[in-house]
Specification:
Blueprint: E1 7-12, E2 15-20, H1 31-46, E3 52-56, E4 61-63, H2 68-71, H3 76-82, H4 84-91, E5 98-102, E6 105-107, H5 109-116, E7 119-123, E8 127-129, H6 143-151, H7 153-162, E9 166-167, H8 168-173, E10 179-181, H9 186-198, H10 202-214, H11 220-234, H12 238-248
Parallel strand pairs: 2-3, 3-5, 4-6, 5-7, 6-8, 7-10
Antiparallel strand pairs: 1-2, 8-9
Helix pairs in contact: 1-4, 6-7, 10-11
Bound molecules: hexanoyl-coenzyme A (HXC).
Hexanoyl-coenzyme A binds at residues 25-26, 28, 64-69, 84-85, 88, 105, 107-109, 131-132, 135, 140-141.
Length: 258
């Protein structure tokens, strides 16, 4: 699938960029948009010339969440048949790092999409919230779980039960985002960060992402074992030999991605 209607894709060196492109609907995440997003991320994930990805929206809205108009009349079976949550889950199966470049509203599924990314660069106008309670539901794409793990119970409860928004500076203070920059520079900053990561040893980057994310899934003992296996495995790569040799020879390493 390449002639997308709800997203735009670009490459910037070794970085794949996806722009959510439903500006009139605040980048509401209808099923079609999610399918296109997943398709684009998978294509970048499979492309050896790409090392990291960035997802962004517009200055006004990263995304205002799942498309309320599309969901309003759905029955539970409709949602199941549409595979509503499967699409979201599949984003977490992308192996290369994904950075969310967030400006303006990141609400509901939009906040959850940012949480599915590995790093978040926010503009000073960014606002994160789970307003589902105001339309009679709760987050359905991980918000109650991921926000609670990152922010703790107190703040997560306020967001989920009482529509509390987190402004960019609060999000930074609570460790939800990596950095807050001006609205003029948030996308460039995200592309720069992605470019830096994309220039690093590719197999180590993938295993590093997997290991950090497994801290949210596993016990400490299991997580440490997973980390150790990944660490040992990297000693089978040419890049490990090259990286250590380059250090000894005081030169820059030339990565092969194998
Ligand atoms: C469909 C949406 C939308 C959404 C905005 N729009 N959010 N359409 N789904 N989530 C549309 C509006 O209907 C409007 O279209 C246009 O975008 C501009 O929005 P306005 O409301 O006029 O703009 P503004 O007054 O600036 O308010 C911005 C806003 C507000 C604060 C972001 O739009 C808002 O509260 N949106 C809903 C946020 C929300 O509840 N999200 C959670 C969704 S549930 P028209 O055609 O009227 O111009 C969810 C669950 C995920 O995400 C579960 C996944 C499994």
């Amino acid at each position: 699938m390449t002639d997308y209607t709800d997203i735009l894709t670009e490459t910037h060196g070794r970085v794949g960029l996806v722009r959510l492109n439903r500006p009139k609907a605040m980048n509401a995440l209808r099923g079609h948009l999610l399918a296109e997003l997943l398709d684009a991320l998978r294509a970048f994930d499979a492309d050896d010339s790409i090392g990291a990805m960035v997802i962004t929206g517009s200055e006004r809205a990263f995304s205002a969440g799942a498309d309320i108009k599309e969901m309003a009349d759905a029955t539970p079976v409709d949602l199941m048949n549409r595979g509503l949550s499967d699409g979201w889950h599949r984003i977490s199966t992308i192996r290369k790092p994904i950075i969310a470049a967030v400006s303006g509203f990141a609400l509901g599924g939009g906040c959850e999409l940012a949480l599915l990314c590995d790093l978040i660069v926010a503009s000073e106008t960014a606002q994160f919230g789970q307003p589902e309670i105001t339309i009679g539901v709760i987050p359905g794409a991980g918000g109650t779980q991921r926000l609670t793990r990152i922010l703790g119970k107190a703040l997560a409860m306020e967001m989920v039960l009482n529509n509390r928004f987190l402004k960019a500076d609060e999000a930074l203070q609570h460790g939800l985002v990596n950095r807050v920059v001006t609205v003029e520079s948030y996308l460039d900053e995200a592309l720069k960060l992605a470019g830096e990561i994309a220039a690093r040893a590719p197999v180590a980057v993938r295993l590093g992402k997997e290991a950090v994310n497994s801290a949210y899934e596993l016990s400490l003992t299991e997580g440490l074992a997973a980390e150790q296996r990944a660490f040992y495995l990297l000693f089978s790569t040419e890049d490990q030999k090259e990286g250590m040799q380059a250090f000894v020879e005081k030169r820059a390493p030339a990565w092969k991605g194998k």
